């Protein structure tokens, strides 16, 4: 009789391993690779004991720098049993014999008995090496409750159309007096003048700021489809027909276009597995796409 894990494995990878329990062992190795992408993870490894010279079969071996962790995987879904203390003791005995392995992991497709949990919790004191317990099983819709399944980002983008912008200088009393004098002397023609509002000067004709600098540091509020506002420019000058005219300020009206873009970020693929450790620090849903993509990185 096939277990739910065997059926799931065949659905995802297109074949069924010949040996009983192999599907769960491979899935456990793939899950650890997903959680430790910078580590080397192998399945069905062999290590020889330092004291007994026994050759141990390792379901999952995780290597990170000089550190090695070994994992045992048990799928008891068919017989409907939990992983018991005896299973944990076998792993504990192997850990004592394998000097090069620093800690252990256990993967259960069902759950653990109370004595098994207590053994794992006391393992560091009893055998000098920690054993982490993992529940790794097919996920359900209930596992998705309370999780963020999709992130929707809505962006309102405002693009100023500077080529259509209008600027209106406000002259000081001195500036208005200077304009009247220049008109009277015939150096300016009375009426409206189209002038290029770009740079602003001091009395010695040095450029002290520009429209670009002003608008990049401080932009006014939007009204309808344009941004409108004003800048206080007392003591600065605008050049008109080669003459410096003192300013009080500058108003502007800059039209803008508005676009709305929506980005949706959700899980790649369909959720198939849940992996959760005993402390709850690891609690992750795994998709079929993640399993397929990471499998090539597990030997």
Summarize the SSE layout with pairings.
Elements: H1 4-13, H2 22-35, E1 40-48, E2 55-64, E3 67-74, H3 85-97, E4 103-108, H4 114-126, E5 131-138, E6 150-160, E7 166-171, H5 173-184, E8 199-201, E9 207-210, H6 211-217, E10 221-223, E11 226-232, E12 237-240, E13 243-266, E14 271-277, E15 283-287, H7 288-295
Parallel strand pairs: 3-4, 4-5
Antiparallel strand pairs: 1-2, 2-3, 5-14, 6-13, 7-13, 8-9, 10-11, 11-13, 12-13, 14-15
* CATH topological fold name of the largest domain: Trna Endonuclease, Chain: A, domain 1
Instruction: Please outline the major beta sheet.
Output: 7 strands, mixed
CATH structural class of the largest domain: Alpha Beta
Structural class: alpha+beta
Strand percentage, roughly?
A: 35-45%
Number of strands: 15
Q: What is the domain tally?
A: 2
Distance between the termini: 27 Å
**Average of the residue pLDDT scores:** 90
Q: Determine the fraction of residues in helical runs and give it as a percent range.
A: 25-40%
Order of helices and strands: HHEEEHEHEEEHEEHEEEEEEH
Inertia-based shape = rod-shaped
Tell me the strand order in the biggest sheet.
1-2-3-4-5-14-15
Question: Which CATH architecture of the largest domain would you pick?
Answer: 3-Layer(aba) Sandwich
* Discrete helix count: 7
Low-confidence stretches: none
Alpha-carbon Rg, integer: 37 Å
Characterization of the model:
The chain has 2 domains: 4-149 and 267-295, Trna Endonuclease, Chain: A, domain 1 (3-Layer(aba) Sandwich), CATH 3.40.1350.10; 156-261, no CATH class. It contains 7 helices and 15 strands. The chain has helices at residues 4-13, 22-35, 85-97, 114-126, 173-184, 211-217, 288-295, and strands at 40-48, 55-64, 67-74, 103-108, 131-138, 150-160, 166-171, 199-201, 207-210, 221-223, 226-232, 237-240, 243-266, 271-277, 283-287. A 7-stranded mixed sheet has the order 1-2-3-4-5-14-15, with helices on both faces. It is rod-shaped and about 110 Å long.
């Amino acid at each position: 009789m096939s277990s739910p894990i065997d059926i799931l494995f065949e659905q995802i990878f297109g074949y069924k391993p010949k040996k009983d329990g192999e599907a769960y062992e491979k899935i456990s190795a793939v899950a650890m690779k997903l959680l430790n992408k910078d580590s080397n993870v192998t399945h069905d490894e062999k290590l020889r004991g330092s004291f007994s010279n026994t050759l141990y079969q390792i379901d999952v071996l995780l290597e990170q720098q000089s550190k090695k962790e070994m994992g045992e995987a048990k799928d008891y879904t068919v017989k409907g049993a939990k992983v018991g203390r005896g299973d944990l003791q076998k792993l504990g005995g192997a850990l004592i014999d394998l000097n090069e392995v620093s800690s252990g992991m256990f993967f259960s497709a069902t759950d653990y008995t109370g004595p098994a949990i207590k053994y794992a919790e006391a393992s560091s004191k009893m055998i000098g090496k920690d054993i982490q317990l993992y529940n790794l099983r097919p996920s359900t819709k209930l596992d998705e409750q309370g999780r963020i399944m999709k992130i929707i980002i809505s962006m309102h983008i405002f693009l100023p159309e500077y080529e259509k912008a209008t600027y209106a200088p406000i002259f000081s009393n001195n500036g208005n007096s200077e304009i009247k004098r220049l008109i009277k002397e015939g150096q300016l023609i009375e009426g409206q003048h189209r002038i290029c509002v770009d740079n602003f000067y001091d009395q010695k004709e040095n450029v002290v700021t520009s429209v670009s600098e002003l608008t990049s540091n401080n932009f006014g509020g939007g009204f309808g489809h344009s941004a409108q506002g004003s800048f206080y420019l007392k003591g600065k000058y605008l050049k008109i027909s080669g003459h410096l005219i003192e300013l009080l300020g500058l108003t502007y009206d800059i039209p803008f276009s508005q676009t709305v873009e929506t980005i949706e970020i959700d899980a790649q693929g369909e959720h198939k597995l849940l992996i959760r450790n005993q402390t709850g620090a690891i609690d992750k849903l795994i998709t079929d796409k993640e399993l397929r993509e990471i499998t090539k990185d597990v030997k």
